Amino acid sequence: MQGDNINSDVLILGGGLVGLTLALALDAHGVTSTVVDPADPADILAPGHDGRASAVASGPYAMLEAIGVGDRLAGKGCPIRSIEVRDGLQQKPLIFASDAGEPPLGYMFENRALRMALHEQAADATNVRLLMQDRAADVERGPHGVIAKLQSGGLVRAGLLIAAEGRQSPTREAAGINTARWQYDHSAMICMVEHELDHENVAHEIFYADGPFAILPMLPGNRSCIVWTVSRQDAPALVTLPEKAFLAEIHRLTGGILGQMKLLSPRSFYPLSFHHTAKITGERLALVGDAAHGIHPIAGQGLNLGLRDVATLAEVLVDGIRLGLDAGDAQLLARYERWRALDSLMVAGATDGFVHLFGFGGKLARRVRRIGLGAVERLSPLKASFMNEARGSSGDLPKLLNGMTI
Question: DSSP assignment, residue 406?
Fold first, then answer.
């Protein structure tokens, strides 16, 4: 690579789940990209690297199928047929379920399975240049294009720079884009468990004043991912709690709905925070995924929000390039900004609102919440709206989220 000069339509900094999906969506439509990421593939693709799992809603999954990644994921994701939402251990949950013959609400994947599929697809892609263990040492954006000097000595020229580097995006900071941000007094505790009863493809979200507790179905049917929101100060102690005591606490919080459990993975935790940028574009610059917005995992929408960015930006760029426009044309960036601004703000605001709504203790607050959940159950249009949001099929959808090529 050292000394190479590369020309491509776009330069994507960050080769994670969102950045690499964008490169592959563009590749499927003949748009060239160079993806630069500092990670070592031997590390990030190793079995023990990332024990986390992600929900991919049915809309974003339709996109993965449309761009050719679906075949590599076949049989690796657990379909989510229904979601049961409870305030504490109330007997009658609010149930969101896909009808017979409909696609599932989404799929649960181990992050490693997603990462492997994307890297395998990128290796076979004609229009993707993936440069791992490298980073941009200097980037210039100007009226005529983007020029990036890489640490390896290479030079990349492109029409558009795309920041997909995650929550701490240095490109976003260098561009001076204002960001609203705050820390929650919570951490997410994550582990894989095996349980006595089959989960039957049901995801459970149980709300407590201390934070939500999610049981997310994995393959096979006696295996689930636990995402337990705990006080930030308690998280280190819970990681080292004796296994028997830890499982007893999980059993108490779940009411034993899946029977006895045992740990299948080490416990890990990460602090929770929120951020949302004032804008997602600049001169020859677009932000996607966590570089643009980072939300609480309360509804499992973090990755899906990023994949919706991907579907939108891909359509904007493909349409523009077909018309003969440069990938960094201001008209295209303005269209992307308009298309994504409202959806991303509403999802971010809704998840933050849920965190605070379910964070109030006391009998009155609990009664209000249960009345609200009951109202959603009774009002079909409201429930349908929540269902569409869970599927990733609400609002003005890009073609890819409908499973169509652009």
Answer: -
Residue-wise pLDDT tens digits, 79-96: 999 999 888 887 788 888
Q: How do residues 166-210 score in pLDDT, each as one tens digit?
A: 999 999 999 999 998 888 888 989 999 999 999 999 999 998 878
- Inter-residue contact 117 to 65 (CB < 8 Å): no
Dihedral pair phi/psi, residue 149, rounded to 5°: -95, 125
Q: State how far Cα 188 lies from the chain centre.
A: 15
Strands (E), 290-335: 293-294
* CATH assignment, 5-78+107-181+275-361: 3.50.50.60
Q: What is the value of pTM for the model shown?
A: 0.90
Residue 326 has φ and ψ, to the nearest 5°, of -75, 145
The torsion defined by the Cα of 28, 289, 34 and 331, in degrees rounded to 10, comes to 80
Delimit the domains of the chain by residue range. Answer: 5-78+107-181+275-361
Peptide bond into 103 cis (omega under 30): no
